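Good morning N.,

You mentioned wanting to compare the apo and holo forms, so I went ahead and generated the holo version with flavin-adenine dinucleotide. This is what I fed in:
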Amino acid sequence: MSHPPHDQKPFSAMDRRSFLRAGLGGTLFLGTVSVTAGLSGCATAPAGRLNAAETQVDDGYQFQFLTHDDIELFRALLPAIVGPALTEEPEPRRQAIAGTIERIDQGMVRFGPANQKELRKLFDLLNFGLTRVTVARVWSSWPNVTTSEADAFLERWRTSGIGLFNNGYIALTKISNVAFYGHPEHWHLSGYPGPPEWAMNALPQFNNA
Amino acid sequence: MSLTDRIAKGLEAGWKVTDASTLTDNQTHEADVVIIGTGAGGGTTAEILARAGLSVILVEEGRLYYQKDFKMDELTAYASLYQEGMSRVTKDGAIAILQGRCVGGSTTVNWTSSFRTPEPTLNYWADNFGLENLRPEAMKPWFDGREERHTVSPWLTDPNLNNDILRQGCDQLGYSWKVIPRNVKGCWNLGYCGVGCPTNAKQGALTTTIPGALDHDARLFHGLRADKLVMKQDRIDHLVASAMSADTVTPSGVKVHLKARHFVVAASAIGSPGLLLRSDIPDPHNRIGKRSFIHPVNATVARMPEKVDPFYGAPQSIYSDEFNFREGVDGPAGYKLEVPPLHPAMSSGVVPGHGAEQRDNLKQLPWMQSVIALVRDGFHPDSPGGTVSLRDDGSPVLDYPVTDYLWDGLRRAFHTMAEIQFAAGAEQVRLMHLDSPWLNSWSEARAAIDELPMELHRVRLFTAHQMGGCGMGEDPRQSVVNGFGEHHHVSNLSIHDASIFPTSIGANPQLSVYTLAARNSVRLAGKLKG
Ligand SMILES: Cc1cc2nc3c(=O)[nH]c(=O)nc-3n(C[C@H](O)[C@H](O)[C@H](O)COP(=O)(O)OP(=O)(O)OC[C@H]3O[C@@H](n4cnc5c(N)ncnc54)[C@H](O)[C@@H]3O)c2cc1C
Ligand code: SF4
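and this is what came out, ligand included:
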């Protein structure tokens, strides 16, 4: 993933109304607004390997697409998206969330450049303070957002009459749900026993030992 | 690795297969025919031309995955086998597009349902697009041939409960239903067709025509993206292609030039019009990318009193055409009813929701049953289809407006699906719609369906069948290729994939693609040999 170009329109040229107009009139997927790396600090570089202080669990995973800010965003949203399916025990809960964010990153790497660009716009919009407040109506920065505030934000975008926001809701929840419920360690939450044991025992690709 | 695996054996025996991510130098190769895309159309074409003694180069943007890689795991499969890592959507993001990107194309991940092109569709094409040679009688021997090649026959094993509920509901209501013919040989009835068949039972391109072509000296480059066909006067001179790096999505910088006497484009709907647009292929009537169709799909899920285990067993074995052509071929939108397999990742992405509600939705997966409706688009003036265009980076994107005509069909389909599920004993039914609650009875569902807004994003829409965009027809003002897939304006260019359909099919398209590609390749081989 290359850095987003620095020649995009600065957000200061737009206000919320013109954003909505652009969104309503256009066919863009949260298009037209993208915050430059300059405005949001240097946060649009992939986070790479987080250090132990940031993750509390340094498993050496290298982030290839998500930035530090994106990771904060998902740390705030995942408790609202998949939290109720998680244990309340702090340590396993933190690990499940960290693992889900890594799988989200892995998935997004394969989305390819065009869809990554769309996601970058969405994340920048949510991470940049001014748009976070005016467009998403989330008053605190993500690390300070409570689970119920995150849930309220998701509900607003889900029930909004504006297709663009519905689309943002789907984008955020779908990737999170898939990365969470699709993970073998969470299959039990959907009562899925996994691929049939007898077939795995009989197939050569599972017997490479 | 098992020596019964055709691909593993062939690679060991010295098939000419190049993983383009390993290339370090720009290079040029030459053959009689270059084929772009290795799916239903490309594979068929390659086998027939190679067997006829022509030298063939196959170009595939995705990578070569085969039995050793097929481990019945959703997350890996979606990331590696599907276009845009399963994140492909229409331009406004409202319709999820499931499409293959690997050797074998969508046939490597498809659900093995194998239908002939419905007769009303072929006759509609003859009547409206001058395609007289494609009448059912003329096509019959070609369907026979391809059914044999891909071992197509009705699925005689009992359907899994997921499918049987569609049958039961139809029986209760007096709606017709039938058993689906499948292209399988020694199927283990596992249910993982969508993530790459782990047993090689599926007779898609990967286990039939691709090995057939490679056995006959065809060369395959995978991880190589066709960028541009370059013209010299009125013919295509060569193809410029980009090697992908090992991450599969970023070009490595290595360019491959492929020269040939003839070029067959089989990158499918979205991909083929995209390539033609990038190449500035003559298009005096602005037809490239137009009339793209998708069989828009909506869905309902039911909670059944007994365990359904919708993740196990042949994914599709029962269908109903009760509402497909009932109002005539060009009346109000018709739809085919089928059943999708439900694995956890897929289900959690398809059922919209979050939080405790989503946890409770997914907890019920073993009791869940789902019906899908595939709306037959393109047979009515109010269903002109979508348009493929290029994004800034040259990649193709489909803009697909959902017209009122289609919304009407989708709403009726919601009615039918819920009615069938309640008739089969569902405790509750939920529409795949942002606003749908779990509905407790057919009458409650009927009222809700009449009330709920039929709007983009709110109604969850999908497509696994991309068609059109390089439509065929006898009139060059209306179409891109003629009834043999030959380009109207460029004599050494043919298109052999789902992009040439002038409307949608009205049935799952793979057998239509195999069949037309076979017919058109036999003719092409004759021309090139003669
Ligand atoms: C999940 C799923 C389930 C399905 N189930 C069924 C079913 O049960 N029955 C049925 O009949 N149909 C089914 N289909 C649809 C069916 O498989 C397709 O209609 C059919 O394979 C289309 O054939 P094609 O040759 O047009 O394209 P494909 O088979 O998709 O092949 C096109 C190939 O071209 C490659 N390509 C694209 N662009 C480029 C480029 N620039 N350079 C190089 N290569 C490129 C792609 O990567 C792909 O491999 C299903 C599809 C999906 C996704
Ligand atoms: S159901 Fe049959 S064809 Fe499908 S994956 Fe299983 S063995 Fe293969």
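Residues 201 and 209 of chain A are 12 Å apart (CA to CA).

Happy to go through it together on a call whenever suits you.

Best,
F.
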